[in-house]
Amino acid sequence: MTDHTVTFTFAETGATATAQVPTGSLLVEALHRAGVDIGQPCGGQGRCGRCIVQVAAGGKVRRRSSLRLSQEDIAQGYALACQSVVEGDLYITVPPQEKIERRLTTDRIASEIRVPDGYEFTWSQTIRRVSVSLNPPSMDDQADDWSRLQTALRTKANIEQINCSIGLLSRIGTVLRESDWNVTAILDMATGETGGLARLIDLRPGIGSEEEPLWSAAIDIGTTTVTVWLVDLVTGQVKAQVAEYNGQIARGEDVVSRIIFASKNGGADELQQRVVNTINGLIELACKRVKAKPEQVVKATVVGNSTMAHLLLKIPAASIRLSPFITAVNHPPLTTTREVGLNLCPEGTVDCLPGVASYVGADITAGVLSSGVYLSEEVVLFLDVGTNGEMVLGNRDWMVTCACSAGPAFEGAGVVDGMRATEGAIEEVWVNNETYEPTYRVIGGGKPRGICGSGLISLLAEMFLTGVLDKAGNVNVDLKTRRVREGDHGGEYVIAWGAETEHGKDIVITHVDIDNLLRAKAAIYAGFTILADQVGVPLESVAKMLIGGSFGKYINVEKAVQIGLLPDMPWERFEFLGNTAIRGSYYALLSQQSRDRVADIAKRMTYIELSADNTFYEAFMSAMFLPHTDMSRFPTVEAVLRKT
After folding, report:
1. Residue 102 contacts residue 422 (beta carbons within 8 Å)
2. Distance of CA 141 to the CA centre of its chain
3. How do beta strands 197-205 and 182-188 pair?
4. Which of 202, 280, 457, 530 is the most buried (most CB within 10 A)?
5. Residue 602: CATH number of its domain
6. Has residue 99 been placed in a domain?
7. For position 620, what pLDDT does the model report?
8. Paired sense of beta strands 349-352 and 297-304, if any
9. Same structural domain for residues 259 and 375?
10. Alpha-carbon distance 232 to 111, whole Å?
């Protein structure tokens, strides 16, 4: 098989890189061989268009798919790296890649997180710090080092049995002698009943102060964002709070794309390493803020959807997306940071909290814990809006749950000019109902580069209420305004002209974009209406709608109701809780009682598989209109339409 030379030039810097690949290789494989990391948010399926490159004239490349390319794009040499096959020597230009910028939460906010009432380090959770002074061995006392340490700890902490890894066992003798037989043991009692079985996590020289911090971490692995709270177990206080985009995004923006990528050769290893690198980077940043070292972190509780948990632990996730949609495990056993690959205390405990089903994971059980759904006397609806839409309906007596694949449209993917909520994103839009001219607000205040989820919700509502869109989501191209026009994908609306954007190109929303947004909102609305129908609870009787997830903080309730994303109910019933998953992880980290409660919540929740019959499809199709085919469900929207 003939090898070919592929030369890459980076438009942003002018730098070059080369790779040798055989005939039939994908361009993305050549990029990887050249040491270049290019985004593949759809997992290499050719759906997102983010890995677009430009092939020099005459380049021998075969496009397997041009789904995201116009004829003009193809004429100019553009191709998707994940869908283009190398058939000769090539010169490729790589456009500037999307830069992910994030305004990290501050320690001021971290300091405002309230420690649960009644927290007491010595009994609330499973980690124990025990200092002992041992008698050194002698000719008259020939006990081995491990037995000597066990005896001292049993006496001091009333522990019957202590387990220890070989790796830590090999260090014990050195630590004992270098510390003159005065040491502090870090123990985890989660392996058995208090007073019974314990596991030695670390052995530190010297007699530790009771007030000295003992570090741990609550971790939320979101499909989009990873969040870490660094916690001092002695006081229970969150000392640092950091977040960053999940490194796996480059290989898939939704869980199905990542499962597909993981099934490819080496894909599972790469995805696991990417999320581990993200967590390690955040832990290091958090530790710097408090002048600690990552190896001092002795425990981590982890939440995330079922796919995220499987990918972290390198457990095959393929069965999650295949009928009958079964996980390999809903309640992973305790493991260690060494086994996972986290750069913390090597024998530190990693506790992945339990989930319920393939698409209802520990992020939801933790959210139910922290939101108090399981304690409510009234019926409440808990909704976590993200790439997947997970929801729970119930109270302290019963809970039902389901999940729908909303897709990443509201996070900017699958939308031509969509982007994440970073600097340069249009976050809110208003459309004049006479001139159809838009005004908008941009994150950071500069020129726009695209439009993010909150902006898309706002835009969709405004276009519908002003007549730019009909109920089916079709653009009215007959309006007397330059803002509407026929594009490559049907009718489209120009939000910002090229002269006012950062990149000099028009920012538009197309018919295909609108269809993707309608599908996302329809899936979410259909999901919670089915839950309500299954248990015979009318939506209007729900006392509260609790919305979790970072995306929920930016939703304009009025606009979300107007497009049919949220039910039409009094605004005071909506409560935005922010990241309920990380807060639940924090509670379970501090308290063994809360940890047991999460497990109980997972057992109590009844999972409804929406694909089991046609009920979801029928509800989904009814919700594919603005705001819905049944306008009686949206009386306030109907009233607004009568006035316009």
Report:
1. yes
2. 56
3. antiparallel
4. 457
5. 3.30.420
6. no
7. 93
8. parallel
9. no
10. 12
321-360 as b/e, with b when 16 or more CB fall inside 10 Å?
A: beeebebbebbbeebbbbebebbbbbbbbbbbbbbbbbbb
Q: What is the DSSP letter of 241?
A: E
CB 384 within 8 A of CB 398: no
State pLDDT tens for residues 532-563.
998 999 988 999 999 987 666 677 889 999 99
Within 8 A by CB and 6+ apart from 14, the residues are none
Nearest to 232 by CA among 296, 304, 157: 296
In this predicted model, what pLDDT tens digit does every residue of 177-196 receive, in sequence order? 999 999 999 999 875 444 45
Q: Looking at residue 405, what DSSP letter applies? A: -
Tell me the pLDDT band of 121, cut-offs 50, 70 and 90: confident
Mark whether 256 and 347 lie in a shared domain. yes
pLDDT grade, residue 146 (50/70/90)? very high
CA count, 13 A, side-chain hemisphere, 229: 31
Ramachandran category for residue 94: left, alpha or beta (phi over 0 → left; psi -120 to 50 → alpha)? beta
Residues 20 and 137 in one domain: no
C-beta neighbour count of 446 within 10 angstroms = 10
Task: Say if residue 523 is in the same domain as residue 390.
Answer: yes
Gap between the Cα atoms of 569 and 294, Å rounded: 47
- Rounded to 10 degrees, the C-alpha dihedral 246/250/255/259 comes to -120
CB 109: neighbour CB atoms within 10 A?
11
Contact residues for 424 (Cβ-Cβ < 8 A; gap 6+): 442, 443, 444, 446, 447, 448, 449, 450, 502
Q: What stretch of H or E contains 441?
A: strand 438-442
Please check the confidence at residue 407 and state whether its pLDDT lies above 50. Answer: yes
More confident residue, 481 or 9: 481
- What is the rounded CA–CA span in Å between residue 614 and residue 365? 27
DSSP class of residue 422 equals S
- The total of other beta-carbon atoms located within 10 Å of residue 585's CB is 35
Using a pLDDT cut of 70, give the percent of the chain over it: 93
Read off the pTM: 0.82
CA distances from 273 to 62, 199, 230, 262, 311 (A): 31, 27, 21, 12, 9
pLDDT band at 361 (very low <50, low <70, confident <90, very high): very high
Residue whose entry in the numeric block shows the structure tokens 């999650």: 320
pLDDT > 90? residue 160: no
More confident residue, 83 or 260: 260
φ, ψ dihedrals at 371, nearest 5°: -80, -15
Which of the 8 DSSP states describes residue 495? E
End residue of a domain, out of 466, 501, 516: 516
**pLDDT at site 144:** 95
At 64, the pLDDT band (50, 70, 90 cuts) reads confident
Amino acid at 35: G
Q: Is the pLDDT of residue 370 over 90?
A: yes
Residue-wise burial string across 562-571, b where 16 or more C-beta atoms lie within 10 A, e elsewhere: bbbbbbbbee
My answer on whether 557 and 638 are in the same domain is yes
Dist. CA 61–CA 50, nearest whole Å: 18
At 317, the amino acid letter reads A
| Six-digit token string for 332 | 């992973």
Question: Which residue segment(s) compose the domain that 399 sits in?
Answer: 362-406+518-643
Task: State the CATH number of the domain containing residue 183.
Answer: 3.10.20.880
Are 284 and 274 part of one and the same domain? Answer: yes
| Contact by Cβ (8 Å): 258, 248 | yes
- 219, 353 contact by CB (below 8 A): no
Determine the pLDDT at residue 103.
38
Query: Distance (Å, rounded) from C-alpha 644 to C-alpha 632?
Result: 18
